[in-house]
Amino acid sequence: MNSNSKKRTIMIFPQFENINIIHEIRTKYDPLANHVSPHITLVFTFESNLTSIEINDHLKKVIEDTRCFRLTLQGIVKIDNPLGMYLFLDIKQGNDQIKELSKKLYSGILNNYKPVWLNEDTFMPHMTIGNFTSKEDLDIAFKNTELIKESFTSIVEKISVEIIDENEDSIIEVEVGLSNE
Fold first, then answer.
1. For the chain, which residues make up each domain, given as ranges?
2. Residue 1 contacts by C-beta under 8 Å, 6 or more apart in sequence?
3. What DSSP assignment string belongs to 2-40?
4. Residues 95-129: pLDDT tens digits?
């Protein structure tokens, strides 16, 4: 990694009144719980020499017509596929807006950073609440959490760009607000 190169992720950090429930689950099952707040990823981690200004300008340009929207998450989903073993919190409302935002962000200067596996038809926006290396651990965690039926609702007002430092900690670099019109 050269000195100008940065690892970044673009995401939504929803603010829920009952976010403590998510914190409890993540503390148990997500190794990144202490490094990054609960989030929904729009642009998956990429490494580049882009400057903060270039990133900021790109975000402002592609989301200028995007309005704030309501986000509702509910229900825990077990994922076991070649990309990994996870527990996701399912998105009940706001899914289409997230897909649209992700698509817009992966244009222009970020076009080359779109992962090969990211297919718009199969992309499932989500919040990761658990990450596992063994199927057994995944199954146990799912059994322990599948009855959690709480609903988590928030209005998405901005998107954030984080820089991931060498300790895997998240440092917010840029935040761009969505329109209220």
1. 6-177
2. 7, 47
3. -TT-EEEEEEE----TTHHHHHHHHHHH-TTTTTS-S-E
4. 999 999 999 999 999 999 998 888 777 788 999 99
Per-position b or e across 37-46, b if 16+ CB within 10 A of its CB: bbbbbbbbeb
Q: What is the CATH number of domain 6-177?
A: 3.90.1140.10
pTM of the model: 0.92
Q: Which is nearest to 15 in space by CA: 128, 130, 157, 126?
A: 157
Note whether 159 and 178 are within 8 A (CB). yes
Q: CA 129 to CA 84: how far, in whole Å?
A: 13
For 68-90, b where at least 16 C-beta lie within 10 A, e where not — what string? ebebbbeebebbeeeeebbbbbe
* Residue 103: exposure state from Cβ atoms within 10 A (0-12, 13-18, ≥19): middle
Distance CA 181, CA 158 (A): 14
Residue type, 133: T
